[in-house]
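Thread: Modeling a multi-component assembly for a lab meeting

Hi all, long-time lurker, first post. My supervisor asked me to bring a structural picture of a complex we are working on to next week's group meeting, and I have zero experience with this. I have the sequence lines for every component (474 residues in total). Could someone generate the structure of the whole assembly? Inputs are pasted exactly as I received them:
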Amino acid sequence: MSHFGKLYLLPVPISDEQEQNYLPEYNIRVVQGLKKFIAEDAKIARRFLKRFGYKTLDEAEISLLNQHTEKNEIPGFLSFLKQGLDMGLMSDAGCPGIADPGAEVVKLAHQAGIEVVPLVGPSSIVLSIMASGFNGQNFAFIGYLPIEKGPKAKRIKELEQLALKHDQAQFFIETPYRNEQLFELLLEQLSPQSKLFIGKDICSPNQSLLAKTVAQWKTGIKPAMHKIPVVFGIYKE
Amino acid sequence: MSHFGKLYLLPVPISDEQEQNYLPEYNIRVVQGLKKFIAEDAKIARRFLKRFGYKTLDEAEISLLNQHTEKNEIPGFLSFLKQGLDMGLMSDAGCPGIADPGAEVVKLAHQAGIEVVPLVGPSSIVLSIMASGFNGQNFAFIGYLPIEKGPKAKRIKELEQLALKHDQAQFFIETPYRNEQLFELLLEQLSPQSKLFIGKDICSPNQSLLAKTVAQWKTGIKPAMHKIPVVFGIYKE
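Re: Modeling a multi-component assembly
Sure thing. I ran the full set together rather than chain by chain. Output:
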């Protein structure tokens, strides 16, 4: 095991603005020492490396892991690690392995006996859980709801029941251009006393993290969220 | 709303060693500007402030939020915020609102229309989710299992079923002196092909984050974990 390289999980700032506020200095030092990376998008990865003062960008080798990557290509990503070289796994924004495709590589690394080293950084999901004031002892992130309206409405009802029955706060995301539709459906389907968390544009200067009852959201001004990254949460006490 | 102070959620390093590796520089700047804090333990909070170069420790006022705090004391914590002063909410280690008592204060802040600002920092639970290689699109943190052996065994079986049925990775913690008991019970109750993640002493120089099948854990050397902080995870594909 000890002759293998380490797989570093490198969080990437969520927003371009104030990005230096969201990463420990230590991460930058780790990144400087790496030559091999796995990333969702090469352009985004190179921009990240450049912005954080990575000095040998021409030598950086970036393997792509995204929806176009075949499952049988992934084991090949580990060859550098097996040769003793450290690698950095990045997502486009946020923490690798949380709502991104990184988990598959991490799984194979564990199977191969490669050390996995997660670094601290921003995750809009984690910041939402913290800022919701919901149940920090019991929460779930369930990714995306179904796309079709009928199954989506049904899932919302299920999540409300889970929140109530198991005292478990439920967090989820939506494709940004469908946010406003989802928000309307949430107000329609949830009971007025249920709490709804909306975390908008997290880690940008416009960030807004609010938890209100559905009744309060209904009477207030509708928050603009079209094409803006949002984390949603449901809780019921 | 704008005349109120902001409630900053301040992550605290998990381990005393290498602690500067786990916080963005920005957090230190925010802490310097605060005079009022809410913390689980005054001594731990003061040590944190001191270590991070907080300059006016004599003037810092720390309100205690822990198992001895009466629920009716908590609204009083917000009085400084309502007077327009910013406050910092800290847990003993990790991120406020994640497996700590901070959520109650955050809830009241939302109710009062106070802005909640979560800062980036280490959480052993989040680092475990990242490093597990389990399902980053669907995971739950469920806090502690029941203490009694019978209900605990039953809960383990339930979690394995949840993992399989909903493809949802299940993370949980234990009081550190009961870790080895829980580990034995997990090996006994889970099916051999289920995956078990053990995240030990995270953010310390001894950290170990491993995901293996139950069959592999059974044949390997038992990891020492008595009185060591551990995050557990179950997943089944």
